[in-house]
UniProtKB/TrEMBL annotation:
Domain of life: Bacteria
Name by which UniProt lists this protein: SRPBCC family protein
Source organism of the structure: Streptomyces roseirectus
Annotated Activator of Hsp90 ATPase homologue 1/2-like C-terminal domain residues: 12-152
Family the entry assigns: Belongs to the AHA1 family.
InterPro entries per record: ASHA1/2-like_C, START-like_dom_sf
Cited CDD domains: SRPBCC_CalC_Aha1-like_2
Signal peptide coordinates: none
């Protein structure tokens, strides 16, 4: 049965700033990789129907075997919906010889303006069974923390 994983975080920045970080190549490379990884985008086509390929490299591959090679995860992401500044929908497929990581996972990034900033909710559906729910939700939460740090440090500050 397909699984759904979720995580959410309040980010102290307006939805337009958060949305921009979701669709900017340099920003994605900076914040999307969870703790313990770094990322590099190899292909970039930021439009509905377009997408990107990201190689995620484990900083310590001895304790984190990759899905694509001993120390990497390669993911092809198709952008299926871009609704500024409310939502980004991605379909992700890992490059792997292991069938436990096969299939298309849909990631929906929902942005809701709220007092104090933007509530960002990430919903992942069709998660491959080889990805543990606990690890996946921890990874999403880590990416959300990175996103918050990235956007909040760039948000204009109000005068005291």
């Amino acid at each position: 049965m397909p699984r759904t994983d979720r995580a959410a975080r309040l980010i102290a920045a307006p939805p337009t700033d958060v949305y921009t970080a979701l669709v900017d190549r340099d920003a994605l490379e900076a914040w999307l990789p969870p703790d313990g990884m770094r990322g590099r985008i190899e292909h970039w086509d930021p439009r509905p129907g377009g997408g990107f390929r990201m190689t995620l490299t484990y900083l310590d591959p001895a304790h984190s075997p990759g899905k694509s090679s001993a120390g990497t995860d390669v993911v092809d992401v198709r952008l299926t919906a871009l609704v500024p500044p409310e939502r980004v929908v991605q379909q992700a497929e890992f490059t792997s010889d292991d069938p436990a990581y096969a299939g298309t996972m849909t990631m929906t990034w929902q942005l809701t303006a709220t007092f104090g900033g933007t509530e960002v909710t990430v919903t992942a559906t069709g998660v491959p069974p080889g990805i543990s729910q606990a690890d996946h939700e921890t990874g999403i939460a880590s990416s959300l923390a990175n996103l918050a740090a990235h956007v909040e440090t760039r948000a204009p500050r109000e005068a005291d």
